[in-house]
Structures
1.
Amino acid sequence: MLGAGWWMGRPRYFLVFVRELTAFFIGAYLVFLLILIKQVAEGAEAYQSYVDFLASPGMIAFHVVAFFFAMFHSISFFNLIPQGMAIRIGEERVHPALISGPNYVFWAVATAVVLLVILL
Amino acid sequence: MAADQAVERSGDSVRAASGGVAPAESITLEVYRYDPSTGEESFQSYDVEFEDDWVVLDALNHIKDTIDGTLSYRWSCRMGVCGSCGMMVSGYPKLTCSAFLRDYLPGPIRVEPLLNFEVERDLIIDFDGFLEKLESVKPWIIRDQDKPIEDGEYLQTPAQLASYKNYTMCINCMLCYAACPVFGHNPDFLGPAALALAHRYNLDSRDEGREQRLKVILSNDGIWDCTFVGECSIVCPKGVDPAGAIQQSKVTGAMEYYKSFLAPWKSRK
């Protein structure tokens, strides 16, 4: 049986552990997002007070950390996708970049669309 | 190595001296020892002369032949084919027949039994559980009805062969199990090699036993336990990709799940 500190034994174990840990921050972010939707439904005053709460230093710090964890989570899984998808042309497997690449392209397009909606 | 070499012991440390002359260069191996009759475990240091073309297994054989005949370990082919000599070499699962001493200079090299297994004695692990797991995934070609021998062989195209060939390279050395923290936490996990082998036969165009294997690989201790650490594929000495095989099997498993809703009459029994 492995000891409690197994995840510190090798760099790869550590990175996997961090990848698993990202789920907590992404989950917590979604909870704050759901509360935001609820506050919007409750009216302008409730929405404004929640926005003020989100602007507090602690919440900004949380969102910065959650952002970097979300980036790490997405990038690590995009890079793992080719290993889990055995697409073949004849006897050869398709190059990994041709599988992970479209994910990055779609990610960039989706981000651009979201930014357009927010900024325009 | 001469059998009449002088051996002098000092506490836990053992030193071999050839004809009374200390070797010009040496390297220390710190070897795990376990005596099942007393339950005692320890590390014993052996200084062996350094040879540029020696692997860790050569050093262990030298120790057993000339310094300490009580040291126990498994080995057979000495050329990375039999899969017997897997051990933890300085904390990393390796075939000791392909771990060169020169890559660990100046030493010491710590040699331990494969992680995550019960130890029988010194560097020998108990792999009965591994063999049971291998057998449970039915790693052979299953046919609903065998065709008569006179009808000839089952033919495959090069592309059909290529789809599973990587997984046929497994030599059952169990390095992947020593590298897998999921198996380290749950000894019942089927593990990388068994699941890769199941995938190998599921991909084989001659096989018709996929349904039987899915029952095993989709069970509680099957593919869903894997958290895609991926270290199994990194340590594999034969370039097999068990982590990829398991993720691909997860896609199959997820499709089976959705099929049970969308087309329940076609789903598995």
Note: The interface with chain B takes residues 1-2, 6-7, 9-10, 12-13, 16, 20, 80, 83-86, 88, 90-92 of chain A (CB under 8 Å).
2.
Amino acid sequence: MSRSWVDAILAAGVVPASHVPEASVGRVDLEEFTGADPVEDPELRVRSLVGAPALAPPSVGFLDGIEQWRVVGYAGVTPIVRAHVAAAIRLREGDRRLRTVAENADELAITRLDRLPDAVRGALAGTGVRVVEIPADDAGQPARALPAARLEVQKARAALERRLAERRLARLGSDEWLVVDGVLSDSPALSAHPRAVGVVKSHGAEYFEGPELERALTLPVLHRTSVFRPKRRGARREIYSWYLRLWPWEGNDLLYGLLRVEARAHPGTVALAPRISAWLVGERAPLATPDRRWDRLLYPIYDVESYLRARAPRDLLPAPGSRLPRTGT
Amino acid sequence: MIDKASFQPPPIGRVVATEQKPATPHQFHFWTANETSIGIGAIVRVEGFGAGDSGRVVYGVVTDGFAYSDLATPLHDVVGAEGDPARAAEHPTVRQEIRLWTAAVLRQRPEEPLQPVPLGAVHVASDVDVAQALRMDAYLGGEQPTAIPIGLYTSGGLEAPVYLDADFLLGPEAAHLNISGVSGLATKTSAVEFLLASIFQHFPPHKGRVAAVCFNVKGPDLCFLDQPGALEDEDRRRYERLAVQAQPFERVRYYAPFKADGVNLNTLRTHPDLVGDVEPLVWGLREVLDYAEVLLNRDDIDAKADAFIDFLADRVVDKEFDDGFGGAHRVVTFADLERLFRSIFDGLELAGRGDTWRTHHIATIRKVRNRLSNISTRCKGLVTDDGPSSDLPWGRFEDRAVYVVDVANVDPLGQDLVFARAVSKLREHLERRDLGVDAVVVFVDELNKYAPGDGPDTYVKKMLLDISERGRYLGLVLFGAEQFRSQVHRRVVGNAGTIVFGRMDSDELATPGYQVLSPATKIKLATLPIGELMVRHPHFTQPIFVRFPRPGVLRGRDGVERFPPAADLPFEDAVVRQLVKLDRRVRPNQVKDLIADRREEDVRRALAHTRQARPQDAFAHFKKHLGGRVAAVPAAARESVAPLNRISDEPY
């Protein structure tokens, strides 16, 4: 499909565009406020990982996804966005190498159909590309349309990841774990599975305030907080969570090296929290450089992203710094 | 000759091209799995696909390899391991790595239009691919194939025979082979021995008859070419794959000069079981005089000496000659010549006719006399003062025969003389097409010594240059070997159509002549195992690594152990042995009685005559030429007259 549907709508009168929003190269967690209930301790405490035996699962799958999108044309002032979302699971076994065991990708057009001329709508329908619509209220101004489009891309990517994870869970080996980049609570299956772990790098959601917040965000290196239960929000499922510091934040930033770990809401999680934490601390090497999030990005997750980016359509992102008109064939 | 590939193996890599490392018509890059079996020197096939590239096939040889991970900077590894190298090995995940290879294009199909290498799948080359890649298909098939096996290309579990084109190895299109390598591994000699065997077995019938003349210049290297050597199963398998029979040479003729005693051979092939095959190499005045230039060093070379030597050769030797003082001479041997010189000096002295004889200054005469007598002193055994010569069978060379001339223990001056004369005679006969064969391979080791890049222009060097530049038209082919190719005369190595490299010295590889090789290829050359070579041939656009089996002949060192050289025999026993060799009926005691109390030079002369004549009854012939014992007669006192004029201050 790739450019064929873009060519079709351009032929139908859409003015070509080449705008790549900054946010299209990575994922941004939604900012929100919530709260949490204590689980392991009556109030959030800091626990050292020194001496904690690390969990050492013989095989671990790492799941991540990417999203890339660009405005490929305008029908009037209505943007038409071409988006690519992809997710993959790379399995690590005894040889410590990562191999892809599952992957999926999707391409979609994001616009507001009723704002498009008939010819363009017809062209889009004729190509068979999956069209996702932005809300009518956001379709008027590009300043609102583009964030709305971005939200749709994120949803598509999250849905793809969830489907891939749930399929994998159904075939997960008895000693195999699945580490997901992001939250588990989106999925009933993930949030209930005993060997699924979510690793959250962004900390838009606040679960604490006051001294507990300070304890969470000033966590020393190789320490974790006690396990807590984030309060449920909407359709999200109940999970247990805790903070974990991979690298010393002093001299950098409060969020430097800080992860939030999610696992199923079960007493066993509390018992395993030290071992899972020690395991994840071990995953900080090799460093996920040159990614600028390397202090929180586990190398296997970085590897999945690298893998997906390498397989993404090459024409979706223009060469850096070049917005010259395309030439040649 | 080539096995057809029966299946299409999966690709082992993929061509990649970036702005920094683009694919070009002559070079490309590809990646493979980390566990790949290919390495430097491997031949690969790239198959194009997609618009414009479909059906295109490119063959390349791997010239360099790179491995790297996604590590941005070494510092990140240090940080990840917290400064402890041991911990780096404990990382739960192995970083992504790449094996990236650079390959030089060997051939593109179709050849026009010549375009950058397509970004296609990379396969390990099969036998058929190797033949295509090296353009061997042009001479492997057809009505008159000219392929000469040189070794097996081996890579990734596959191996394929590599052939040289006889038209480009032995002429007339190109010719000559030069082989370089460090000393002591026996690779150079072994490679030449194997290649000669291969040539003898695969030389195309339509090209006629071929022989080889090998100069043994050190130790016992070439002294046992007719004896079978020890081979391992792997060697035999390689022979079978190359369709060459693993056997010693069937026809080998050995030539060696005598030692100073004139009866014991100056060679390491003197074991009683083998020495019978060694023919003496003995030259007399005529043989030496034609190559007198060899004996003259740079300071000696002047028109006057040349003119006098020419005078001797044209007017004196083998002719009835009047010395102008009443003496008649027929100069055949050095002894005759010495008598003529004495006669001239005495005549001039007695006649008081100043310092000129037949327009030649006496100083020139003395100089030439000095040089000629010097060779008979320094090369006693090779050059005989008197008696007939014993020489290579000019005009009677046999097809597929090796003529080994052992000059390992001969004075360097004598070696020069042997080279010069043997090669000049080969050229003369090949020009006249009456040598007995149509092509001759001349193997000369130690080109660093005989054709150095610097130093004086010796006769031998000029002769080697002459072969290099003109020999291919005649069928006179030089197989030269040396340790340092950079120090051999550039026209000698430059004219070699086929260049072979064994293990090379690192310093040598640092010289400008090797700049065309990639660093990885140089490293491979510096560590090349015994039995592996890098070959350049006119049909190959890039050097190719091949493995060859051990030659089917006994190595020199092993030969000396199995056939230890015999101690020098006493004069009488040595004479007996030579006569018995000519005629098994000869009774030793009879010979010893005959030669008792006889002068050794008389015995040597008679022996030489017998050797040359090869009569039915060797003893009778020997006895006849030895003549009767003559009682010594005191010489009459010679009248001498004091010179009227002082002749010269010339110190000769």
Note: Helices of chain A lie at 3-11, 118-127, 142-170, 188-192, 210-217, 267-282, 299-311.
